Structure formats: structure tokens, C-alpha cells
Amino acid sequence: MRTANVVETRLLIAAVLCACAALALGAFVSSRTPTRIDVEATALRGTAVPLALFFTSLGRWPALLALAVGAAAGAVAMRSNVAVVAILYAAQVASQGANALVKFLFHRARPDAWLAIHETDLSYPSGHAVTAVVFFAGLALLVWHAPVPRFVAAPVIALLAVCAVGIPWSRIALSAHYLTDVLGGLLLGAAFLCLALVAILRVVPTAIR
């Protein structure tokens, strides 16, 4: 029990630190012209646009809902506790609500040189980057600890890891976000993933051990 409390405490501290870092970065970039790393990252604009569009589509609600239903079905088939998938999906929903509030707080405009999809909401932080961490990295972590053979889990985890990297990349490739928007989203996503793991440990203590 003491070990569990230590793990939960560390996760909560990590969540606070990541959230504070996301807010600090937002305060830094929102009142300035694009930073040097934002400008340099524009070199990725227009690279593999069809692939970028595919990864971006994975970060939208229809794909996420389908994946969550599939993950829940997999948990039932493996006789695992489906609550862990429900908690992760709830964290995804909550993270997007928080992301919308942070966008409103910093009110950073999107890049002008968008490709293929013209998104008109605010820019910082990237909701897709949040999703990449909370949902895809979180799901990969659950699969890693699931009671399935490693030769089955490994390719699934690899695919989820590719998505967790590809989705943030796609936002820069399509010029939908600045690099710092993506970094802020990754930090905010990490905060919510830590909170989700705390909730999962409370409900299913053996889910990620």
C-alpha cells in the first residue's frame, strides 16, 4: 500500500509540473512573434501531406471513439477490467475540455500558411498533441501491462507509438500549428495522462504494474 501511495504521489507531482510547464510556455509564446524554433520548424511544412492528413484524422473524435470501442472489446475478450479503457477515454475528453480553456486563455492565432485543412480555432496548445499523449501513449502503456503475450502486444504498441509520434508531426507538416503549440500540447497531455494513471491505479491497482 505504501508503494502504491508513493507511485500515485509521484504521478500527481509530475502532473502538476507538466501542467505548470505548459502554462509557462503558453505565457512565453503567446505574447511574442513566432520563436526561432517555430520558424525553423516550418521546414517540415508540406512534407508527406497525404500521410500527415491520415495522422491528423486519427486525432479526431470518430477515429478515437472507434479505437476506444475496439480497446474495450479487446479488454472484454482478455477478461481484463474494461474500466481502465473507460478511464483513459474519460481523461481524453477532459483533456480536450482543458485544452479549449487554455487556448482561450492564451488566444494565440494559428499560422497563416495552412495546408489542406483551414482550422479557424486558436493555436496554443495543440489538441492533437494532447491526444497523442493521453490516448495513444496511454493506450500503449495499458497494452504493455495487459495480460497478453509479448509477441501480440509488441506490434500493437509499435503502431500506437507511431501514431503518438505521427500525430504531432502532422500538425507541423500541415502548418496547422507552431512547434511550440505542439510542445505545449505534449506537456498538457502528459499532465492528464499522469492523472489518468492515478485514477486507474485507484480502480484497478494491478493495471499498470
What does this structure look like?
This protein is mainly alpha-helical and 209 residues long. The protein has one domain (2-203). It is 74% helix and 0% strand. The protein is built from eight helices and no strands. The chain has helices at 2-30, 36-41, 49-58, 61-77, 83-106, 127-145, 150-173, 179-203. The longest helix is centred in the N-terminal third of the chain and has 29 residues, at 2-30. The radius of gyration is 17 Å and the shape is globular.
Overall, the morphology is globular
- SSE succession: HHHHHHHH
Instruction: Return the structural class.
Output: mainly alpha
- Major beta-sheet overview: none
Assembly type of the chains comes to single chain
State the separation between the terminal residues, measured CA to CA.
Answer: 13 Å
Number of strands: 0
Write the topology of this structure.
Blueprint: H1 2-30, H2 36-41, H3 49-58, H4 61-77, H5 83-106, H6 127-145, H7 150-173, H8 179-203
Task: Summarize this structure as a short list of keywords or feature phrases.
mainly alpha; 209 residues
Question: Quick summary of this structure?
Answer:
The chain is mainly α and 209 residues long. The chain is 74% helix and 0% strand. The protein has one domain.
